[in-house]
Amino acid sequence: MVEGYYDLCIRYLPEDKEAMEKFLLLAKHFGFKGVGITESPNKEYITNTCLYNTFLDIFFGIEIDEENPGKLYSQVSRGSREANYVIVKGGSDKLNRSVVDTPDVNILSLPFGMKEGGLDHVIAKSAANRGIALEFDVGALIRYRGGKRVHVISELKQRLMLARKFNVEMVLTAGARSICDMRSPRELIALASLFGMTKEEAMKSLRDTPASIIKRKKTNEFIEGVELIEEHVYPEKQGESC
Amino acid sequence: MKVLPPSLRERKRYLIIEIITEHDVSREELIREIFAATGSLYGDIGSSECGLKLLNFEKQKGILRCSHMMTEKTRAALATITSIGGQRAIVHVLGISGTIKGATKKYIQCATISEAEHINI
Fold first, then answer.
1. ipTM score of the complex?
2. Which of A161, A203, B2, B60 is most enclosed, with most CB atoms within 10 A?
3. Gap between the Cα atoms of A91 and A152, Å rounded
4. CATH class for domain A5-241?
5. Nearest to A43 by CA among A54, A51, A53, A35
6. Could you tell me the CA-to-CA distances from A189 to A127, A202, B87 in Å, in that order?
7. How close are the terminal C-alpha atoms of chain B, in Å?
């Protein structure tokens, strides 16, 4: 099977260099190409723990949990400058609508078991238009047992139906909160099949979508002192114009 | 009872599993946890369809037999295991084989040579 899996929603930041090393070794052992940590570390931490690492790509995202739409806007724009990608935690209907209208949001993460809220067709449609990916957190299937898991599976099934209908991008993740919550890509695919996701969809949401989220961000960035003067014209197009 | 000829036997697959924990776990604890996980995910009927049996288990690596149609389901059930014998654990499937011989040759023997690769958390 082709390599190149990413897990972008790891909500765990290893405390020191040793923990980081263990974490990276485990991720490598599982066959990930890159991991994305959604806890915001300071610069000192990054230089101390991540520089020596060459075998795995590490990305730092930011997860925003903000009820107020006005504050959300400013937090997202600040977060998108600092981090590789931005995840916003949804909730009520009003909040979700303002999230999908905010620019620079990459991933929308919705909690389970909300009475007023969750994914509906309006949010699915505008998320698809703006290229916002929807997080499918199979960590809930691992953590819960019994009744709660039953509800989680049916909710994920509902979200999958809407995502398929409106072509919303999907991101499959283990939603790890500690090193013990990590799962390998093949296991994530198997867990996704529990709520009806096909193998192809699961592989796309582990490989192509996360890769495009990271790439999207990278292409917008320039090193200090460099600026884009004009768009590059490809040779074959030049030939046509002559 | 006579052993059934190979053509009449149920088809099987062998999952090579690896347990990632801080301290080693025993075979009994692992079996109890596997059946608890499949039982809670698929119920009694579903887990009987999986036809699980843990064959050999040593040095935190083992071979788990299951029905050939249920490999993905078994994988999913194994992924829902969070703790074994009271300590946090991850069950990682290294590979799937059609024969015990293949499974041992490909995964278990290679693993004993490069034992340093085994990860403890």
1. 0.86
2. A203
3. 15
4. alpha beta
5. A51
6. 23, 6, 25
7. 46
CA angle A32, A30, B98 (to 5 degrees): 125
Cβ pair B79:A146 closer than 8 A: no
Pairing state between β A133-137 and A170-173: parallel
Phi then psi for residue B62, to 5 deg, are -150, 170
Contact with chain B for residue A29, Cβ under 8 A: yes
- Residue A4: how many CB atoms within 10 A of its CB? 16
**pLDDT 10s digit of each residue in chain A, 242 long?**
456 888 888 888 777 777 788 888 888 888 888 888 887 666 666 666 665 666 777 888 888 887 887 788 888 888 887 778 888 888 888 888 888 888 788 888 888 877 777 788 888 888 888 888 888 988 888 888 888 889 889 889 988 999 999 988 889 988 888 888 888 899 999 999 989 899 888 888 888 888 888 877 655 555 556 666 766 666 665 555 55
* Residues of chain B contacting residue A186, judged by C-beta atoms under 8 Å apart: 75, 93
pLDDT band for position B74 (50/70/90)?
A: very high
Q: Considering only CB atoms, which chain A residues are within 8 Å of B90?
A: 180, 182-183
Flag if B92 and A187 touch (Cβ within 8 Å). Answer: yes
Give yes or no for A145 touching B (CB within 8 A): yes
Q: Cα(B43)–Cα(B38) distance, rounded to whole angstroms?
A: 7
Domains in chain B and their CATH numbers?
14-117 (3.30.70.3250)
Cβ neighbours of A7 in B, within 8 Å: none
Cβ proximity of B64 and B74 under 8 Å: yes
Inter-chain CB proximity B79 and A188 less than 8 Å: yes
